[in-house]
Amino acid sequence: MSFAVAPGVAQPASRTQGARAQSTQNTRSGASSLAAPAVAAAMGACAARRAQRAQKPRTATRVVQEFEDVCEQTGVTLSRYCIELANRGIIDSDLDSIFNSIREAAKVISKLVNTAPLKQAELLGLEGEVNVQGEDQKKLDVITNDVFKNALRYTGKLGTLASEEEDEPVDASWMGTGETEAIPVLSEEFADTGKYICVFDPLDGSSNVDAGIPVGTIFGVFEEPDPAECELPADLSKGLSEEQQKCLAGTLQPGKSLVAAGYVLYSASTELVLTFGKGVVGFTLDTSIGEFVMTRPSIKIPSRGKIYSANTGNIAEWDEPMRQYIEDIRAGKGESGKPYSLRYIGSMVGDIHRTLLYGGIFAYPADTKNQDGKLRLLYEGAPMSFIMEQAGGKAITGHSRVLDIPPAAWI
Ligand code: AFP
Predict the structure, then answer these.
(1) What tens digit of pLDDT does each residue of 169-226 get?
(2) 246 and 325 housed in the same domain
(3) Which residue has a Cα nearest atom 5 of ligand 1?
(4) Which of 30, 238, 277, 282 could share a disulfide with 296, CB 3.0–4.6 Å?
(5) Structural domain of residue 305, as residue ranges?
(6) Which CATH number goes with the domain that contains 112?
(7) Tens-place pLDDT, residues 324-367
């Protein structure tokens, strides 16, 4: 897909107003010890505030403010955050379990990426296969795909998993494809309980990984339209009947139906950024305690930036309006009147993370080689667009909102 995310830019990614400056305050406050009368008074005040807040819509910032009423945080971990959201009815317990698994998989992948240069024979280089996108698979693509898939599968909360690295979506209650016999991995009691679909790219930017350049995991969670209706065979690689294909196609939804999305950036630190559709929150892996700790309670993309991020090596192949637009912002002819500089890693998670925090524009425009752009709608475009919009930015193709586009297939 052709894709651009940015706040406050003219053509082709048009204007967004009013995005507030991003808050990066650290929430790791010390534990507070209040004397008993003060606690009683505080509890009364908290109850009154809670009653007032019940009238207002819930946002990520509001949920974090409510934690402060509890007055005992030594830092809000991702697991604590999800428990609090579940307690407040913002997410259900299934989504909480799914995020437990995503969190654990992210820690394992972070460790693999960090230690890969020390275990080159095992972890670096090509696997020898080409994935469904026609790209050479790296060993780490395959290993991280298994880590993520297995972590999610064992939750028993997912009907379907779809990975950028797999040819077909996987029925989450079974394992074993291709020549191997399909084996149930969950007892009947836990199997088929899932009403969620998880789409993910376990190691985006993996062509950079051998050089130790930042890479990331991208994921999105949808609710299955009606899980009961899709009776799929255990081994999807053996082909589907027309009815089953229709049923699966029915589970393909546009990004605006996402209930959650996020990414994990494996870089100088490991950053996990997520949204449940109520703002965007960021966590950093504290390796000393093995926990993701909230470091950015409410991420808002700055309303104007000065960086553009795109592979300008392809500029001669872009449409004329796109080429002109980039030339204009480079020359300071955009709305800010200041020239934009180029920063491009070629690893979407890193480029998006910087754009989210510093502002500006990230784009992968269509070119003569990639008529719809190179990025995959389901695994990259939709989850990242959900995050961008939730942070006050825009995600467009130049013609339409990315989140409105229904995916044509699982690839
Ligand atoms: P790899 O996973 O093959 O490294 O691709 C990464 C990616 O999908 C995305 O993360 C980048 O933004 C984009 O491709 C970079 O593509 P170019 O190398 O064509 O600029």
Answers:
(1) 666 555 444 333 444 444 444 445 578 888 999 999 988 888 999 999 999 999 877 6
(2) no
(3) 205
(4) 282
(5) 2-7+301-404
(6) 3.30.540.10
(7) 999 999 999 988 899 999 999 999 999 999 999 999 999 999 99
Half-sphere exposure of residue 260: CA atoms within 13 angstroms, side-chain side: 25
Chain centroid offset of residue 126 CA:
25
> What separation in Å is there between the alpha carbon of 131 and the centre of ligand 1?
14
Q: What is the largest CA-CA distance in the chain?
A: 71
* Count of domains for the chain: 2
Give the SS3 label for residue 257.
helix
Ligand 1 pocket member 101 (CB < 6 A): no
- Integer Cα distance of 127 and 271 in angstroms: 27
Percent helix, strand and coil across the chain, each rounded to 5? 40, 20, 40
Decide: 374 in ligand 1 pocket, CB within 6 A.
Answer: yes
Co-location of 255 and 311 in the same domain? no
70 within a domain of the structure (yes/no): no
pLDDT band at 134 (very low <50, low <70, confident <90, very high): low
Is 27 among the domain residues?
Answer: no
> Is any ligand 1 atom within 6 A of the Cβ of residue 207?
yes
Collapse the DSSP code of 101 into the 3-class scheme (helix H, G, I; strand E, B; otherwise coil) and give the result.
helix
Q: Find how far residue 72's CA is from the centre of its chain.
A: 29
Ligand 1 center from residue 44 Cα (angstroms): 54
Tell me which residue has its CA closest to atom 7 in ligand 1.
Answer: 205
DSSP notation for 289-341: TTEEEEEESB----SS-SEEE--GGGGGGS-HHHHHHHHHHHTT-STT-SPPE
